[in-house]
Amino acid sequence: MDQSGNGRARVMVVTPTDPRCKTNGGNQRTAHLCDAFSRHADVLVLSLTSDQVRTPELDPEGYLLGPIHLSKRYAERMPVRVLRRACEVGLQFSKDRSQRAAVAKAVEQHQPDLLLYRYLNQAVVSHPPGLDMPCIIDIDDRMSDKYQQMANTAGNALMRGSLRRTSRYLRAREDAALKISDCELFADAKSPESATRFYFPNIPIFNPAEPSPLPEKFALGFIGNLLYRPNIDGVRWFLDEVWPQVLQAVPDCQILLAGSGADQFSGRPGVVSLGFIDSVASLYDQASVILVPIRYGGGSNIKLPEAMAHGRPCVATSRAVDAFGTDVEGCEGLLSCSDAQQMAAAVIRLASDREQLQQAAAAAKQVADAKFSTERLAQVAGKALGIAWPTATAAPATVE
After folding, report:
1. 219-371 falls under which CATH superfamily?
2. In the chain, which residues have pLDDT < 70?
3. In what order do the strands lie in the sheet with 271-275?
4. pLDDT in tens, 348-373
5. How far apart are CA 143 and CA 364, in angstroms?
6. Which H or E run contains 220?
7. Going by fewer Cβ within 10 Å, which terminus of the chain is more open, N or C?
8. Domain boundaries defined on the chain
């Protein structure tokens, strides 16, 4: 179909997250996807984020705007128990006629060669029926844990049915998939020969060439939206189970919480709420070590490689670390902890030994620069494009 006139593929990214707004990990990943594929193809973005636009409209920056998903428009009117039950049985996959119409119209008007769906759920909700076009799906759904549980739940017919429905969709639509985690179990919901999977890791949007010096006074830091349940759970668990052990050994230690909703923890001993911050550097300038105490949630945590890129060691749950697979294996600047006692011991050790803290900081920065680069993402995008649309004349990217 190639309408670009330059022999390059034309890729339409269909996304509910605007890549121009880089204030959270989801938007940052969308921006990285667009940038990586633009190294090999002409990229057009259909951002399904508008409450008012019903058919695609080009904005002044050349982005297509389309309607937000109906479940988001009406979610506030639905009881929490209804929404929770809908997620449990897979009803978040309800088709959205306005979004399907918007995608169909955009395809008709702009003639892409390939669709790149940001999130599996977005593909299921908005892919027009009968549209026969190569697809790449970025499997980065918040509910991926739920899908994995469905695959292992033999006694619940509703869950099994939801998983089968999802699996059938993948087999019918997907040419290639991008995994957010190197150990994403949901990939097993589909036979390996039916699509090619590529590991497209989360990488930091900001990666300073030279990190700021470690502060003289030891402090812990956490950054993340503290209105998001996995973040709330992780910080609350740390403060309840780990923090008392740390304060007993290091009485003057502080923990700095950056992000919306941080004030809910400001009454705890040693806790300083920074609230929402305009620049992540303002946290890293004050924190010696970054905490990633996440115990559940889909995908991987951008806060981990971002902290490493800023030259800060991370103390994290084994769940958060395992999502990055071999990329971080053996890294001295990343301390993986399976329980509260291990996490407390790791923090106390770094707080008590300045030399070890500096070595861990240097190791974290070294791994971040080697493994979490835009060049690597461009290489993955080129391979995925070559599988999904083999006639593309994409020049191969190299990893430095």
Report:
1. Glycogen Phosphorylase B; (3.40.50.2000)
2. 1-6, 70-95, 141-195, 298-300, 392-400
3. 271-275, 254-258, 219-223, 289-292, 314-317, 334-337
4. 999 999 999 999 999 999 999 999 99
5. 29
6. strand 219-223
7. C
8. 9-203+373-388, 219-371
- Written as six digits, the tokens of 384 are 């995925």
By CB atoms closer than 10 A (0-12, 13-18, 19+), residue 188 is exposed
DSSP symbol at 299: S
- Common-topology check for domains 9-203+373-388 and 219-371: yes
Amino acid in the structure at residue 316: A
Buried b / exposed e across 23-46, counting CB within 10 Å, b at 16+? eebbbbbbbbbbebbebbbbbbbb
Q: What fold is seen in the domain 9-203+373-388?
A: Rossmann fold (3.40.50)
- b/e per residue, 323-339, with b = 16+ CB within 10 A? bbeebbeebebbbbbee
Q: Residue type for 11, please? A: V
Helices of type H across the chain: 25-38, 70-74, 80-88, 97-110, 120-126, 144-151, 157-173, 229-237, 243-249, 281-284, 303-309, 318-322, 340-352, 354-371, 374-388
Closest by Cα among 324, 200, 180 to 316:
324
Q: Return the ∠ at Cα 388 (arms to 129 and 203), rounded to 5°.
A: 105
How far apart CA 66 and CA 58 sit, in angstroms, is 9
Q: Give residue-wise pLDDT tens across range 200-210.
A: 888 998 889 99
Q: What is the pTM of this model?
A: 0.78
